[in-house]
Queue: 2 jobs
Job 1
Amino acid sequence: MLSDSLLKKFDQLIARYPLKRSAMVPLLLYAQDEVGHVSEEVIAEVARRVEVRPIEVVEVIGYYSMLHRHPVGKYNVQVCTNISCMLRGADEVFEHCCKKLGIKNKQTTPDGLFSLEEVECLGACCGAPAMQINYDFYENLTPEKFDALIEELKKKEPRSKM
Ligand code: FES
């Protein structure tokens, strides 16, 4: 069940666009923030509101790496391994991320804190290798920088989750 405040936000966003379907991605992002992922219920509701078939919403979700069909960790780590990042060591960095977190591509740590995903270009090529965690970008990534960041995020968590 989506909250009343989210449904109100849906109405406001849709009203901003000449074509209702243009509001699809913002609606999906706000819904994902509330639900934790883009559930079947979210897909159905967004499709109904922007007047497209649910499969069209599914197709859009498939294009954007920041939209998730399944629950992810509290911190969703997305490491770019596309050409610019690859040329500046992204494959090695990604391998290090797997080791540091103890998980592989598209997996989540047992405590639900971190998910890891190898993604295509994040649009931050000038700072390659680049990574995104939730809505924050990190550039010129090195294994050392990654470790420091992960430790910093762990410190923010209540002791029970560390
Ligand atoms: S190739 Fe990695 S951010 Fe563009």
Job 2
Amino acid sequence: MPDILSVILRALSFILLFQAAGVAIYIALFRRRLDRSQGAVRRIGQAAALAGVVLVAGHYALEAARLAGDMSGVWDPTLQEMVWHSPSRAALLCRLLGLLLIAVGLQVGSNRSTIVAVGGAVLATGAFTLMGHTSVNVHRAALATLLLLHLLIVAFWFGALIPLYLASLRETPARASDLVERFTAVATWLVPVILLAGVAMAALLLPNLAALRQPYGRLLIAKVIGFALLMGLAAANRWRLGPALAQRTTGSERRFRRSLAAEYVLIAAILTITAIMTSFFSPKA
Ligand code: HEM
């Protein structure tokens, strides 16, 4: 029971954390081009950050229950103290501080507050390097760098989907297609780095190719398949839906929004697969 609840909270906290961090990055990159959607985007980022605080804290509280094997562990001071003296504490504090900085930084639109929000995004994603398989490997420094790169680009991509959806609803058609064009221009270069960094991390973490047949390896392959599907959607946006949006072809906005929603669901599914993979399985098993 604690295991299942813990992995559900972990997957949901991933979604909220990357949503909040991604909005901070989106606002930093595109704030001057946002007119009618900026307020709503900020509020979504803040809501995701604050809900993320609750789920991150809830997931941390369940660590002791996982050690005990039942929910009574949550109230066991000895087990809670053991968790407090583990790397979970540093990761928890970084995540909470990062999310709070995002919530505060998204309150107003000044340069300084945008820097605070982006600092929060780096801190919240950087927390992933403090625990987990990458932090106990001999290649820790290389893995931490690759993981941070992997995660910041995931945040940039995932966090932009709802803001782009809102832009297509609220901004003028010219402004919305300009935003999509600019986002796509940056994403085209950055998104493949998610795969490159992921494969490099897998090469450092897995003992051999046969490990790909173990549960951890199979879930990694599921991530790669999910990523390939996402690349298909992204290519359609770049070559078909983006230009149709710019030319204001009938129905193009609706098709574009449907494609954004599909990307959102797929990335959320990959985040859930990652939460299962890193909670229950080891690359060395
Ligand atoms: C949009 C696609 C992807 C998303 C949203 C995503 C998300 C994540 C997240 C959130 C983590 C941190 C997990 C943690 O430390 O708890 C992670 C780690 C990782 N990702 Fe990805 N990822 C994606 C694509 C890929 C791809 C294509 C690969 C290729 C093999 C990959 C390989 C890895 C590896 C090896 C780790 C380290 C896991 C560990 O610590 O055991 N990821 N990813």
